[in-house]
Amino acid sequence: MRPVDTFAELHRAASTACGARLFTITVLDRAAGIARRAYTSHPDDYPANGTKPMGSNAWTEQVIVRGETFVANTTSGFSPFFSDHALINELGCEAAINIPITRSDQVVGTVNILDEAEHFTPERVKALERIVGERRVDLLRALADTPVQEQL
C-alpha cells in the first residue's frame, strides 16, 4: 500500500468516528529540525510536502519530547503554538488535536486534526488515540516511506 493510501484510510476512519474538518499528517526529521506534511485534507491551504521548522516551546515538549497528545478546544489554546491560527479559523476550525506517532519511544510523526470549538471531548480523544494506535504499524511503515525534504 502506498503511504498516501495508508494516510487516506486513517483520515476516513477518523472522520467517520469523530469528524475532522482539517486533517494532516506530518513526518519529522529531528536531525534537520523540520516537519514535513505527508498528507493533507486541504491541499490548497496546507499542501502535502510543505515543511516547517520544528519549534522549541511547550507544544514541542509535550508532543515531540514526551510523546503526549495535545488537545486545545479553543483558538486561544493553540494560537500560541500555531502561527497559522488565522488560516485555521478561516477554515472553520477552532479546536485541535495532535497525536504523536512513536517508534522505539521516539516521536517520528504526528496526526493533526482540527474542527469546531470544543469538538475534542474526552470520548473523542480516546477514540482518535485508539484509531491511530490500531494503525501504528502501517503508519510507521508509511512514514518511513515518506522522505523529508526541505522545500526550496
Brief descriptors of the model:
alpha+beta, 6 strands, Beta-Lactamase, 152 residues, 6 helices
Helicity, in percent? Answer: 25-40%
Main sheet: strand order? 3-2-1-6-5-4
How much is the radius of gyration in Å? 14 Å
Shape: globular
- Spatial gap, N to C terminus: 29 Å
Unreliable runs? none
What top-tier CATH class fits best? Alpha Beta
Which CATH-level-2 architecture? 2-Layer Sandwich
Counting DSSP E segments of at least 2 residues, the number of strands comes to 6
Order of helices and strands: HEEEHEHHEEHH
Commentary on this structure:
- With 152 residues, the protein is α+β, with helices and mostly antiparallel strands.
- 37% of the residues lie in helices and 26% in strands.
- The protein is built from 6 helices and 6 strands.
- A hairpin with a 4-residue loop joins β1 (22-29) and β2 (34-40).
State the gist of this model.
Helices cover 37% and strands 26% of the residues.
Annotate the secondary structure layout.
Blueprint (H helix, E strand, L loop, with lengths): L2 H16 L3 E8 L4 E7 L10 E3 L4 H8 L4 E3 L2 H4 L6 H6 L4 E9 L2 E10 L6 H13 L1 H9 L8
Antiparallel strand pairs: 1-2, 1-6, 2-3, 4-5, 5-6
Helix pairs in contact: 1-5, 1-6
